[in-house]
Design a protein that fits this description.
130 residues, mainly alpha
């Protein structure tokens, strides 16, 4: 689903690479694969790193709309995800505090994933969000 937006970000990062570097590589006899491996990827590594860090926060994100459209009491045991469970607890059963706690827990886990992936990224390639 997010392929289009990500593609725009990566293409914008690639267009920011200096064309003179590619010209120098052609003069030195670099192939297309060598230009990708030794010029393009290292040049856009900060963008790749930031995109991966931000994507790590949405690992536990479930798609509420797709599940909710086919959701009924017959499939609660197999089709229940955190978002629909929280919806059912909050809106249907009017258990607002529990529903808020479930969503808060999910957001805290996402934040922890982002922080851990940022720390891991700084250890591996010295790039990160902060």
């Amino acid at each position: 689903k997010s392929f289009g937006c990500s593609a725009i970000v990566y293409i914008a990062a690639i267009t920011n690479v200096d064309p003179e570097i590619y010209e120098a590589a052609v003069i030195d006899g670099a192939s297309r694969v060598q230009k990708i491996v030794y010029i393009t990827l290292p040049s856009i590594m900060p963008v790749i790193t930031v995109m991966l860090i931000l994507a790590s926060g949405s690992i536990i994100k479930d798609d509420f709309d797709q599940v909710f459209n086919l959701y009924n009491s017959a499939v609660y045991s197999t089709g229940d995800v955190l978002a629909t469970y929280s919806y059912r607890q909050g809106v249907v059963d009017t258990n607002y505090s529990y529903s808020t706690a479930v969503d808060l827990f999910r957001n805290v886990v996402s934040l922890v994933l982002v922080v851990l992936s940022n720390q891991f990224s700084k250890c591996v390639n010295e790039y990160g969000i902060w």
